Amino acid sequence: MSHDPCTAGDARDDERDGMRDRCGVVGVYGNREAANLAYLAMYALQHRGQESAGIVAGDGEVLRRIAGVGLVADIVTERALEALPGSVAIGHVRYATAGSEQDKARDAQPLLVRCQAGPIAVGHNGNLVNADVLKAQLEERGSIFQTSSDTEVIVHLVATSHGTMLERLKKSLRQVRGAYSLTVAGDGRLYGVRDPSGVRPLVLGELNGEGRSGFVLASETCAFDLIGAKTVREVEPGEIVMIDERGVHSHRLDNVDGLPSAACIFEHVYFARPDSRVFGRFVHEARKALGRQLAREAPVPADVVIPVPDSGVYAAMGFADEARVPFDMGFVRNHYVGRTFIEPEQRIRNFGVKLKLNPVKSIIEGKRVVVVDDSLVRGTTSKKIVEMVRGVGAAEVHLRISAPPTTHPCFYGIDTPTREELIAARMSVADIARFVGADSIGYLSREGLHAAVRDLSTDESSAAIAAHASGYCDACFSGDYPISIGGHAARRR
Predict the structure, then answer these.
(1) Which of 23, 222, 410, 473 is catalytic?
(2) DSSP string, 192-257
(3) Which has the closest alpha carbon to 283: 239, 318, 332?
(4) Is 410 labeled as catalytic in the residue annotation?
(5) pTM assigned to the model
(6) What is the maximal distance between C-alpha atoms in the chain?
(7) Distance between CA atoms of 449 and 371, rounded to whole angstroms?
(8) Domain containing 233: what range?
(9) Is position 436 within any domain?
(10) Are the C-beta atoms of 372 and 291 separated by less than 8 Å?
(11) Residues 292 and 264 in one domain
């Protein structure tokens, strides 16, 4: 569904009705415009985090940082970039899940510290499920924490370890459990790390052309397109890539044996930009496949298929193509939504959604409409969208979701509600349809999701599809958590 932050009145409900990825990371090595390139790459990753941004840049013994609350363009100004010289840079965009503006400013990344090993900067996408335990142990040994971010746990572990930076990273990450894709600047080098299960994406690229040289790391390949970098490969689960003047060196974490591969399947459903290649597949292709499979599993007589922009567009294209029903853009999206200081009158229905979306009457009026969205979390936004479509004269409204019902919270770096707040965890599909006011609702099956993402024939047996599904994490749909969460299962981080 459309998950961009909105404001005022019932817009606050819409802010909470969605799935958000918490972060995006970038890293640049070996280019005198490292900070500038990181800044541009962060622009391309802005969809992964819109509440804070920051860059650390420098060379060897000197690293400098700028970070704060706001979009990339708000924080990283031209003047700020002029104060960030050096050939190594890492950048970060972040969603904060709770806390005051002061807390969000304090938690903005990358984090930068100076210890006996010199300056170290860390940017983190993911979530550590044992962060509280490690933090308590570190505090007992005298560590003082300045933020509420679990990323600071990694920083303290590295700072209190011994040996080279590579050895410190290995020793530190041996102790943590959870999801992490990291960019690290230290000892004049750039490091990229992906957790042993590979939950969150991280890709390696090389700058080429226009006099540029060097290497880059990013959460998604779309960041490379903007800066003229060539995709080299994904950083493998459990891999540390160390980049220095001699090139790229691959090392393995110590705790990778026996851990399952568990790439987040929701990257294909919603998080990643459609023009990115994630986990070996172009995202727009995967989303069209999701829509085609959804049309096979949940067909309905209709006159037009419309997406909830932007995340539902490619799935709706696939649905329309498979169903042989016309596709059209039945909503106009306002891409310039900011913070409004005017509280609407109560009689202005669905104000928060209307800030972002407006239905096109001439496309919808008198027709049987299929509305395609990527997910249905609490149901409040979907309810308002259905009301808006009916309000311009739709004869029927059928909601189709290009993912299975979201029934469990994520503990690996996605901002999800508690299980009690997830509508699919407490209502049947028929009850959800009644709640949102749709004539029908159709979800994609778990088997269909994996088959579409893997580009498999759904004629395969369930057992065969389950075997292929083992490389993905779909815990938000299944409750099958591939990395043990222990006592954290009782609450959302």
Answers:
(1) 23
(2) EEE-TT--S--EEEEE-STT---EEEESSTHHHHHHTEEEEEEPPTTEEEEEETTEEEEEE-TT-T
(3) 318
(4) no
(5) 0.88
(6) 71
(7) 18
(8) 20-271
(9) yes
(10) yes
(11) no
